[in-house]
Fold:
Amino acid sequence: MSNSVLVTGSNGLIGSEAVQWFDRLGWQVYGIDNNMRMRFFGPEADTRWNLAWLQEHTNRFEHFDIDIRDRKTILQFFQDHSLDLIIHCAAQPSHDLAARIPFEDFDTNAVGTLNLLEATRRYCPDAVFIFMSTNKVYGDAPNEIPLVELETRYDYANPQDYNGIDETCRIDRCLHSLFGASKVAADIMAQEYGRYFGMPVGIFRGGCLTGSHHSGVQLHGFLSYLVKVAVSGGSYTIFGYKGKQVRDNIHSWDVVSAFYEFYKNPRCGEVYNIGGGRNNSISVLEAIDKISRLTGKEIQWTYQNRPRVGDHICYISDLSKLQTHYPNWRITRKLDDILQDMVAFELARVQKRSTQCEFG
Structure:
């Protein structure tokens, strides 16, 4: 009998990568996703295209349209299915949107996570539970690190900060946004189920997660949205910090690769920063330049001087702890390769839609 995995947010970027990964391994893959992203962000964030792609390209994937906030249904699902691994990626992921929908944000991020953790404890306590957290749990504390302003980006001023933010950075006494606060609640709850109950739970605090299957929108999905703007000829808005704010970008394949290493040798309530690291870091201005060159189109952009609430000026994930605990894991996708893949994928999607409209 093959192993089985449940992936929440299975239509999304990391979720869909996890579905493909474990399907290739011959696992039974269950996906939970109710396309909440479209309700959060509108039609351009509709993930049904990705669901259709998964159903066409996988062999042992079964999709369930379930809301993780629905406790009764979640508990029943766990009671009815034998699971070896839970990968929890479903979330409300936007800083800005959270302030407009605080109940939906907290119920999805915090209560939904609790529903899944407790269902795991009741019905499959030996299963490995992986929670996709976020670097936003650190709030704006990383902005206290001394910075230097360069021509196209900010960077850390002191040599000891060169590798970036590690897991010792505090997560309280700072400004988070309501999204950051709801993810803190989920992050701590996941740690507690690991430490208090002795369950194999891993918490991965993601930097900028990206890849061609990202349904990026203005409020979430920096590189994906920028690529869409470039290909469509739209306009991009830079929010504050002169466009020199820095993010480290990691491909979804490398994220799921880390999940698999954790599954093979799990720990109880352990926290890891996961991102592209220094070599995959880029500022908004640098990304605009690179993507313009790749598409051959100049990206039109406007500037708003006010940054997003609680936004990081320079964030690079220190991967030392993850690489020490799991020495077989490493970054395999370089930033330039990621961007080339994303541009090619988006151009192909636009061409496909155009052909369908022409002959449909």
About this structure: The CA atoms of residues 165 and 318 lie 5 Å apart.
